[in-house]
Amino acid sequence: MPTYFSESRCVELSLLDHLDTNLAIDWPGTTVVKTFKQAYSSTINLPIVAVRLADTSTTRLEVGSTTFDNRYLLIIDIFAKSDGMRLDMADYIKTKLKDSWVNYTYSRASGSTTELGRIANGRDTVTDFVTDARIDFGDQVDTKDRFRQSISIRIRHKDA
Amino acid sequence: MPKNIGLEITRYGTPPLAFQKKIQVMFRTAEQASIDLGNKSRDHMRTVITTNIKRKAGSTGNLAKSIDTVVEAGGKVVGVGYIPEMDQIAPYWYLVNYGGMNAAARQGRTLMGNFEGSTPSSKNDGTQSFFQTAPFYPMTPKKPVVAMNYISKTASWVSTIWRIHYSGRLNKVSISKFAAGAAMTLG
How many domains does chain B have? Predict the structure, then answer.
Protein backbone atom coordinates (compact mmCIF):
# COMPACT_ATOMS: atom_id res chain seq x y z
CA MET A 1 0.00 0.00 0.00
CA PRO A 2 1.70 3.26 -1.09
CA THR A 3 1.97 6.24 1.25
CA TYR A 4 0.51 9.39 -0.35
CA PHE A 5 2.10 12.75 0.35
CA SER A 6 0.10 15.69 1.73
CA GLU A 7 -1.14 18.47 -0.56
CA SER A 8 1.49 20.93 0.75
CA ARG A 9 4.30 18.53 0.04
CA CYS A 10 2.93 17.76 -3.42
CA VAL A 11 2.67 21.49 -4.22
CA GLU A 12 6.34 21.96 -3.34
CA LEU A 13 7.53 18.87 -5.21
CA SER A 14 5.40 19.70 -8.29
CA LEU A 15 7.04 23.12 -8.65
CA LEU A 16 10.45 21.56 -8.13
CA ASP A 17 9.68 19.03 -10.88
CA HIS A 18 8.32 21.72 -13.20
CA LEU A 19 11.42 23.90 -12.88
CA ASP A 20 13.80 20.96 -13.00
CA THR A 21 12.27 19.68 -16.25
CA ASN A 22 12.37 23.08 -17.95
CA LEU A 23 15.80 24.12 -16.70
CA ALA A 24 17.30 20.79 -17.79
CA ILE A 25 16.31 21.68 -21.37
CA ASP A 26 16.92 25.42 -21.50
CA TRP A 27 19.65 25.90 -18.84
CA PRO A 28 21.60 22.61 -18.82
CA GLY A 29 23.92 22.28 -15.84
CA THR A 30 21.53 23.99 -13.46
CA THR A 31 20.87 22.10 -10.24
CA VAL A 32 17.44 22.39 -8.63
CA VAL A 33 17.47 21.73 -4.88
CA LYS A 34 15.02 21.87 -2.01
CA THR A 35 17.11 23.08 0.93
CA PHE A 36 19.62 25.78 1.78
CA LYS A 37 22.02 23.13 3.03
CA GLN A 38 22.08 21.55 -0.44
CA ALA A 39 22.47 24.94 -2.15
CA TYR A 40 25.58 25.75 -0.11
CA SER A 41 27.04 22.26 -0.39
CA SER A 42 30.57 22.30 -1.79
CA THR A 43 29.68 19.42 -4.10
CA ILE A 44 27.01 21.38 -5.98
CA ASN A 45 28.20 23.97 -8.46
CA LEU A 46 26.51 27.15 -9.71
CA PRO A 47 23.98 27.84 -11.12
CA ILE A 48 21.59 26.54 -8.47
CA VAL A 49 17.87 27.07 -8.01
CA ALA A 50 16.45 26.38 -4.54
CA VAL A 51 12.70 25.90 -4.23
CA ARG A 52 10.84 25.59 -0.95
CA LEU A 53 7.40 26.02 0.52
CA ALA A 54 7.65 28.76 3.14
CA ASP A 55 4.12 29.31 4.37
CA THR A 56 0.46 28.37 3.86
CA SER A 57 -2.48 30.74 4.33
CA THR A 58 -5.64 28.80 5.04
CA THR A 59 -9.18 30.17 4.82
CA ARG A 60 -12.55 28.59 4.19
CA LEU A 61 -13.63 28.54 0.56
CA GLU A 62 -16.83 30.34 1.55
CA VAL A 63 -18.87 30.94 4.70
CA GLY A 64 -19.96 27.62 6.16
CA SER A 65 -17.84 25.57 3.79
CA THR A 66 -15.69 22.75 5.09
CA THR A 67 -13.39 23.09 2.07
CA PHE A 68 -10.14 24.97 2.54
CA ASP A 69 -8.98 27.69 0.18
CA ASN A 70 -5.21 27.40 0.66
CA ARG A 71 -2.65 29.82 -0.75
CA TYR A 72 0.91 28.54 -0.70
CA LEU A 73 3.91 30.84 -0.45
CA LEU A 74 6.82 29.40 -2.40
CA ILE A 75 10.30 30.90 -2.40
CA ILE A 76 12.62 30.42 -5.35
CA ASP A 77 16.24 31.39 -4.71
CA ILE A 78 18.49 31.71 -7.74
CA PHE A 79 22.23 31.36 -7.20
CA ALA A 80 23.72 32.47 -10.52
CA LYS A 81 27.21 32.67 -11.98
CA SER A 82 26.96 36.27 -13.13
CA ASP A 83 24.72 39.31 -12.83
CA GLY A 84 23.41 38.81 -16.36
CA MET A 85 22.57 35.18 -15.68
CA ARG A 86 20.77 36.21 -12.47
CA LEU A 87 18.45 38.54 -14.38
CA ASP A 88 17.95 36.21 -17.35
CA MET A 89 17.17 33.24 -15.14
CA ALA A 90 14.73 35.24 -13.01
CA ASP A 91 12.83 36.35 -16.12
CA TYR A 92 12.93 32.84 -17.58
CA ILE A 93 11.52 31.30 -14.40
CA LYS A 94 8.71 33.87 -14.18
CA THR A 95 7.82 33.11 -17.80
CA LYS A 96 7.61 29.41 -16.95
CA LEU A 97 5.37 30.13 -13.96
CA LYS A 98 2.83 32.46 -15.54
CA ASP A 99 0.88 29.77 -17.42
CA SER A 100 0.42 27.42 -14.40
CA TRP A 101 1.81 23.87 -14.22
CA VAL A 102 0.72 20.31 -13.57
CA ASN A 103 0.31 19.30 -9.95
CA TYR A 104 1.15 15.70 -9.08
CA THR A 105 0.09 13.59 -6.15
CA TYR A 106 3.26 11.87 -5.03
CA SER A 107 3.42 8.55 -3.27
CA ARG A 108 6.03 6.20 -1.97
CA ALA A 109 5.67 2.48 -2.53
CA SER A 110 5.64 0.34 0.57
CA GLY A 111 9.18 -0.55 1.58
CA SER A 112 10.83 1.85 -0.87
CA THR A 113 12.94 4.74 0.39
CA THR A 114 14.07 6.15 -2.92
CA GLU A 115 11.42 5.72 -5.60
CA LEU A 116 8.47 8.13 -5.78
CA GLY A 117 5.33 7.49 -7.79
CA ARG A 118 3.26 10.36 -9.14
CA ILE A 119 -0.18 10.89 -10.65
CA ALA A 120 -1.28 14.17 -12.26
CA ASN A 121 -3.87 15.98 -10.16
CA GLY A 122 -5.00 19.33 -11.57
CA ARG A 123 -2.89 22.44 -11.86
CA ASP A 124 -1.13 25.00 -9.68
CA THR A 125 -1.55 28.67 -10.60
CA VAL A 126 0.28 31.77 -9.43
CA THR A 127 -2.13 34.25 -7.84
CA ASP A 128 0.51 36.81 -6.79
CA PHE A 129 4.13 37.49 -7.59
CA VAL A 130 5.10 38.76 -4.12
CA THR A 131 8.77 39.66 -4.59
CA ASP A 132 11.44 39.46 -7.24
CA ALA A 133 14.50 41.02 -5.67
CA ARG A 134 18.25 40.93 -5.88
CA ILE A 135 19.90 39.76 -2.66
CA ASP A 136 22.78 42.10 -1.98
CA PHE A 137 25.14 41.32 0.90
CA GLY A 138 27.72 43.91 -0.19
CA ASP A 139 31.23 43.28 -1.44
CA GLN A 140 32.46 40.62 1.01
CA VAL A 141 30.22 37.74 0.04
CA ASP A 142 30.36 33.99 -0.25
CA THR A 143 30.79 32.76 -3.84
CA LYS A 144 27.27 31.30 -3.78
CA ASP A 145 25.75 34.57 -2.57
CA ARG A 146 27.43 36.84 -5.11
CA PHE A 147 24.67 36.83 -7.75
CA ARG A 148 21.51 35.90 -5.91
CA GLN A 149 17.88 36.62 -6.70
CA SER A 150 14.84 35.75 -4.63
CA ILE A 151 11.42 35.25 -6.17
CA SER A 152 8.41 34.61 -3.95
CA ILE A 153 5.03 33.60 -5.32
CA ARG A 154 1.64 32.74 -3.91
CA ILE A 155 -0.06 29.88 -5.64
CA ARG A 156 -3.39 28.13 -5.58
CA HIS A 157 -3.93 24.46 -6.27
CA LYS A 158 -6.99 23.23 -8.15
CA ASP A 159 -7.81 19.53 -8.25
CA ALA A 160 -8.51 17.88 -11.60
CA MET B 1 -45.32 76.37 -36.35
CA PRO B 2 -44.34 76.91 -32.67
CA LYS B 3 -41.99 79.80 -31.90
CA ASN B 4 -40.56 78.36 -28.68
CA ILE B 5 -39.32 74.89 -27.82
CA GLY B 6 -39.96 73.82 -24.24
CA LEU B 7 -36.87 72.26 -22.73
CA GLU B 8 -36.86 70.53 -19.40
CA ILE B 9 -33.54 69.76 -17.80
CA THR B 10 -33.53 67.11 -15.13
CA ARG B 11 -30.43 66.75 -13.06
CA TYR B 12 -29.52 63.23 -12.14
CA GLY B 13 -26.53 61.41 -10.74
CA THR B 14 -24.49 62.63 -7.80
CA PRO B 15 -24.04 66.42 -7.43
CA PRO B 16 -20.35 67.46 -7.51
CA LEU B 17 -20.24 68.45 -3.82
CA ALA B 18 -21.83 65.19 -2.71
CA PHE B 19 -19.45 63.30 -4.99
CA GLN B 20 -16.50 65.10 -3.42
CA LYS B 21 -17.75 64.16 0.07
CA LYS B 22 -18.28 60.58 -1.05
CA ILE B 23 -14.68 60.41 -2.23
CA GLN B 24 -13.47 61.97 1.03
CA VAL B 25 -15.34 59.39 3.09
CA MET B 26 -13.97 56.58 0.93
CA PHE B 27 -10.44 57.91 1.35
CA ARG B 28 -10.85 58.33 5.09
CA THR B 29 -12.16 54.77 5.38
CA ALA B 30 -9.29 53.52 3.26
CA GLU B 31 -6.78 55.41 5.40
CA GLN B 32 -8.19 53.95 8.59
CA ALA B 33 -8.18 50.50 7.06
CA SER B 34 -4.56 51.00 5.95
CA ILE B 35 -3.44 52.04 9.45
CA ASP B 36 -5.36 49.16 10.98
CA LEU B 37 -3.88 46.69 8.51
CA GLY B 38 -0.40 48.20 9.04
CA ASN B 39 -0.60 47.61 12.79
CA LYS B 40 -1.90 44.09 12.32
CA SER B 41 0.88 43.40 9.78
CA ARG B 42 3.48 44.65 12.27
CA ASP B 43 2.08 42.31 14.92
CA HIS B 44 1.99 39.41 12.48
CA MET B 45 5.58 40.02 11.34
CA ARG B 46 6.72 40.09 14.97
CA THR B 47 4.89 36.82 15.60
CA VAL B 48 6.47 35.19 12.53
CA ILE B 49 9.90 36.21 13.81
CA THR B 50 9.44 35.12 17.41
CA THR B 51 7.91 31.78 16.50
CA ASN B 52 10.70 31.04 14.01
CA ILE B 53 13.67 31.82 16.25
CA LYS B 54 15.92 28.82 15.91
CA ARG B 55 18.17 29.37 18.92
CA LYS B 56 15.70 30.66 21.48
CA ALA B 57 17.84 30.65 24.62
CA GLY B 58 20.23 33.39 23.53
CA SER B 59 17.69 35.48 21.65
CA THR B 60 17.60 39.20 22.45
CA GLY B 61 14.28 39.74 20.67
CA ASN B 62 15.81 42.76 18.94
CA LEU B 63 14.68 41.82 15.45
CA ALA B 64 11.02 41.60 16.46
CA LYS B 65 11.35 44.83 18.47
CA SER B 66 12.86 46.65 15.49
CA ILE B 67 9.70 46.13 13.43
CA ASP B 68 7.24 49.00 13.80
CA THR B 69 4.51 50.72 11.82
CA VAL B 70 5.33 54.00 10.08
CA VAL B 71 2.31 56.17 9.22
CA GLU B 72 2.76 59.13 6.89
CA ALA B 73 0.34 61.67 5.42
CA GLY B 74 -2.42 60.68 7.84
CA GLY B 75 -2.58 57.12 6.62
CA LYS B 76 -2.12 57.58 2.88
CA VAL B 77 1.24 55.86 3.28
CA VAL B 78 1.63 53.09 5.83
CA GLY B 79 4.85 51.12 6.10
CA VAL B 80 5.93 48.24 8.26
CA GLY B 81 9.57 48.24 9.32
CA TYR B 82 11.66 51.40 9.05
CA ILE B 83 14.99 50.31 7.53
CA PRO B 84 17.30 52.89 9.21
CA GLU B 85 15.86 51.87 12.60
CA MET B 86 16.15 48.16 11.80
CA ASP B 87 19.76 48.71 10.65
CA GLN B 88 20.49 50.18 14.06
CA ILE B 89 18.58 47.78 16.34
CA ALA B 90 19.00 44.54 14.37
CA PRO B 91 21.55 45.00 11.57
CA TYR B 92 21.26 41.29 10.71
CA TRP B 93 17.60 41.68 9.62
CA TYR B 94 18.50 41.30 5.93
CA LEU B 95 20.54 38.12 6.43
CA VAL B 96 17.88 36.54 8.64
CA ASN B 97 15.16 37.31 6.08
CA TYR B 98 16.91 36.12 2.93
CA GLY B 99 19.38 33.65 4.43
CA GLY B 100 22.96 33.08 3.33
CA MET B 101 26.46 32.85 4.70
CA ASN B 102 27.16 35.23 7.58
CA ALA B 103 30.30 37.37 7.66
CA ALA B 104 32.23 35.04 9.99
CA ALA B 105 31.45 31.97 7.89
CA ARG B 106 32.33 33.52 4.55
CA GLN B 107 35.62 34.88 5.92
CA GLY B 108 36.46 31.54 7.58
CA ARG B 109 36.85 33.24 10.98
CA THR B 110 37.10 31.34 14.24
CA LEU B 111 34.97 32.69 17.07
CA MET B 112 35.61 32.03 20.75
CA GLY B 113 32.65 31.14 22.93
CA ASN B 114 30.31 28.34 23.88
CA PHE B 115 27.01 26.73 23.01
CA GLU B 116 25.12 26.99 26.29
CA GLY B 117 28.20 26.17 28.33
CA SER B 118 29.75 23.54 26.09
CA THR B 119 30.69 22.66 22.55
CA PRO B 120 27.58 21.81 20.53
CA SER B 121 26.26 18.38 21.38
CA SER B 122 25.45 16.15 18.46
CA LYS B 123 21.85 15.98 19.68
CA ASN B 124 21.03 19.70 19.81
CA ASP B 125 23.67 21.47 17.76
CA GLY B 126 21.03 22.96 15.47
CA THR B 127 19.13 24.77 18.20
CA GLN B 128 21.62 25.61 20.95
CA SER B 129 22.47 29.29 21.41
CA PHE B 130 25.98 30.66 21.03
CA PHE B 131 27.43 32.88 23.78
CA GLN B 132 30.68 34.78 23.44
CA THR B 133 31.49 34.34 27.12
CA ALA B 134 33.56 31.84 29.14
CA PRO B 135 34.14 28.95 28.80
CA PHE B 136 35.81 29.72 25.50
CA TYR B 137 35.93 27.10 22.78
CA PRO B 138 37.04 27.86 19.21
CA MET B 139 34.10 27.72 16.82
CA THR B 140 34.33 28.06 13.04
CA PRO B 141 30.88 28.65 11.51
CA LYS B 142 30.38 26.84 8.23
CA LYS B 143 26.65 26.50 7.77
CA PRO B 144 24.49 29.11 6.05
CA VAL B 145 21.80 31.01 7.91
CA VAL B 146 18.51 29.51 6.70
CA ALA B 147 16.16 32.17 5.34
CA MET B 148 13.25 33.04 7.61
CA ASN B 149 11.48 35.03 4.85
CA TYR B 150 9.44 36.96 7.42
CA ILE B 151 8.83 39.77 4.90
CA SER B 152 7.31 37.52 2.21
CA LYS B 153 5.37 35.56 4.83
CA THR B 154 3.82 38.78 6.10
CA ALA B 155 3.12 40.02 2.56
CA SER B 156 1.36 36.75 1.82
CA TRP B 157 -0.67 37.04 5.03
CA VAL B 158 -1.63 40.65 4.18
CA SER B 159 -2.81 39.51 0.77
CA THR B 160 -5.12 36.92 2.35
CA ILE B 161 -6.40 39.27 5.05
CA TRP B 162 -7.07 41.99 2.50
CA ARG B 163 -8.94 39.58 0.24
CA ILE B 164 -11.19 38.12 2.91
CA HIS B 165 -11.74 41.10 5.23
CA TYR B 166 -10.70 44.57 4.14
CA SER B 167 -11.71 44.77 0.49
CA GLY B 168 -15.23 43.71 1.44
CA ARG B 169 -15.35 46.14 4.34
CA LEU B 170 -14.45 49.08 2.11
CA ASN B 171 -17.23 48.26 -0.32
CA LYS B 172 -19.76 47.86 2.48
CA VAL B 173 -18.90 51.20 4.03
CA SER B 174 -19.18 53.16 0.82
CA ILE B 175 -22.47 51.52 -0.14
CA SER B 176 -24.25 51.56 3.22
CA LYS B 177 -23.47 55.19 3.99
CA PHE B 178 -24.71 56.53 0.71
CA ALA B 179 -27.57 54.15 0.11
CA ALA B 180 -29.13 55.42 3.35
CA GLY B 181 -28.36 59.00 2.41
CA ALA B 182 -26.97 59.54 5.88
CA ALA B 183 -23.64 59.91 7.60
CA MET B 184 -22.42 62.47 5.10
CA THR B 185 -20.87 64.68 7.74
CA LEU B 186 -17.15 64.48 7.81
CA GLY B 187 -15.25 64.67 11.11
Answer: 1
